[in-house]
Amino acid sequence: MLSFNVIFLILFLFSWLRFDLVQLRLFLKYLVLVLSSETESKREDEIVGDGSNYVVFAGGGGEGRSGIPNALVISLFDSSSNSLSDQPVNKFGLDDELPYRMAVHPGGEGVICSLPKSCRWFEWEATKKDDEFTLNLKQSEKVLYELEHIGQQLAVTFSHDGSLLAVGGEDGKLRAFKWPSMEATIDIPDAHGSVKNLDFSPDGKFLVSVGSGGPGRVWDTSSSTNKASLPKENDEVFGFCKFSHDSLNNEVLYVTAMRDRGGSIVKWNTTTWKRISSKYVVRDPISAFNVSDDGRFLAIGTIQGDIFILNASNLRVQSVVKKAHLGLVTALAFSQDSRALASASLDSSARVTQIKETKNNGFNIWIILLFILLAAALYYAKTEGYLLL
Description:
Elements: E1 5-9, H1 21-24, E2 31-34, E3 53-59, E4 71-78, E5 83-84, E6 90-93, E7 101-104, E8 110-114, E9 119-129, E10 132-139, E11 153-158, E12 164-169, E13 174-178, E14 184-188, E15 195-200, E16 206-211, E17 216-220, E18 225-230, E19 237-245, E20 251-259, E21 262-269, E22 275-282, E23 286-291, E24 297-302, E25 307-311, E26 316-321, E27 329-334, E28 340-345, E29 350-354, H2 362-383
């Protein structure tokens, strides 16, 4: 097995947005992998890399002769210059099959792609050229028969430990399996009108789904039952769901919600499954969403190409990148150290935005206030004759 650390994985297009496949062009979806050092004495299947950063894109023009090939493309990311390579390192063609969703296995085994009618499994492969190793993908001999001829899957995700796989279909059907045995654990034919997004709780005990029509739902992965519902308020439309933890290390669930006035972030208690808070954050529809691994930041992408980075402690906007892309933001992902945010767009572009730490000026403010109070006290003492100068 190829060993590496996954830095971040980007999800794909918001499921309720509809576009002609030819117009989609090469809509991008990618993840960044960091590989550590390698010596020549190690076997290829033990390679853990050379410290390079690889970025994997998936997309294409769909069926027909659009001129844009459907493919998985691996490029190189230079962290020092904060730039992506112009030319790919490797490319895997998919013929007429358009990759629509993608999830990486947390253990570094490979990548699963949602195609128009099925899901396919790809494995990592290290190739050596001129004494240097590069990363590649190859189609696995492992066929996911349980995911053949099941139609378009709009959500694909692994549990944090990689022992569970969940997929949600355009037809509203929700499925979950043990990995890699593919033993079915959840099979709900009408979980939603169509499934938009899925996420496992950190311990894998719960799976949250959001979709068109009805509330969000919490599923018990051991009993395959509906544990709780996440009701909507005031004609909300849920779009994305993501587990995380707060500053006190308490587990929380974030759900994006759209209303006429714009997009909000709804925060849920994962014990009572009650709302903790709801914060309006952006006027434009939310087309991409993610949370940093350390739980400190949330990121939002909009249909106007803007990117918002929020502080998770108070859900306030920390920074905004206006027109980060010319088109709709399709995907967002944080680096493992939360210092960078990658984004992809419908305009066929991708970029990495550095996240600057906000300085805590609270201590300085208290010093200023102390001096003001001291000056006021001295002035009062002087005017009242208590202080002799």
